[in-house]
Write a structure and sequence with these properties.
There is one protein chain. The chain has 163 residues and is α+β, with helices and mostly antiparallel strands. It has one domain. The chain has four helices and eight strands, in the order βααββββαβαββ.
């Protein structure tokens, strides 16, 4: 399948306060011009992959040949009419280890950091990579947000606090 990151959430919306914290932290991370340069900023007539950080979604991709799949993290749950038996919401993004992967891993760390603080909510993040593959995202979060080093990819391929 290629190098991919995955996440599962319950079949419910993320509360607005938690989402605002995620969006604010991710905005801080991508405010660095070197990081922002990794993300598509061009508006197009067709479906745009241009960086969007809104009250309901975070969406982005890499630039040109350095893009792969668009990363989309949504606050609101949308039922899957094709698979109503699903017990969790499922998302994934194949990055093929392209440079924008640092933004994907940083965003998933940020989401995990804020959502896991909520007693009635969760986000389960997993990856084809190992902690070493996530180090750029971890270091970026630590540098900008003062958290990140406490996370690792465990032996089951899941993001969590270091043991």
């Amino acid at each position: 399948m290629g190098y991919t990151h995955y996440w599962n959430t319950p079949l419910k919306d993320v509360d607005q306060k938690t989402w605002d914290a995620i969006a604010t932290d991710f905005s801080k991370v991508v405010s660095d011009p070197k990081i922002l340069a990794l993300l598509d900023q061009e508006e197009r007539k067709e479906y745009s992959q241009k960086l969007r950080i809104t009250s309901d979604e975070i969406l982005f991709n890499g630039v040109g040949e350095l893009s792969h799949e668009t990363f989309i993290l949504e606050r609101k749950f949308t039922p899957n009419s094709f698979r109503p038996e699903e017990k969790e919401n499922f998302g994934f993004c194949k990055t093929a280890r392209k440079p924008y992967d640092v933004c994907v891993t940083a965003c998933l760390i940020i989401a995990h950091h804020h959502i896991e603080k909520q007693p009635d909510n969760y986000i389960k993040v997993s990856s084809d990579g190992e902690t070493e593959d996530w180090m750029d995202g971890i270091k970026l979060c630590e540098k900008v947000l003062d958290y990140g080093f406490e996370y690792e990819i465990n032996s089951q391929g899941e993001l969590g606090a270091k043991a």
